[in-house]
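Example 3.2
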Amino acid sequence: MHEMALCESVVQILERQALAQQFSRVISIRLAIGALASVEPEAMRFSFDAVARGTLAEGARLEIIYEPGSAWCMFCARAVEVKRRFEECPHCRNELLQLTSGDELRVKELEVE
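Structure, written as tokens:
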């Protein structure tokens, strides 16, 4: 379950930001997760609750925002939305797509005190 490792990284980011920005508690966190990031939302929520215990993020509300995948078709030179990797272009049916977004996971917003 790589969601546990992802959550550990998120908590490390929160701890570094707490030192830099001088806050002591995280009330809520919004994570932007790309549709192609291969992250299960329920596993992420479960893992976050487990990893956050005893940290400044314990009890924090986790909100997950999905961001669609997008790619550039190198054949017809169009930006297209993709739902999975190695999809063909919906316009020209070519498979020469360069992924441009949708595989990331990032902390989008924090509410702290």
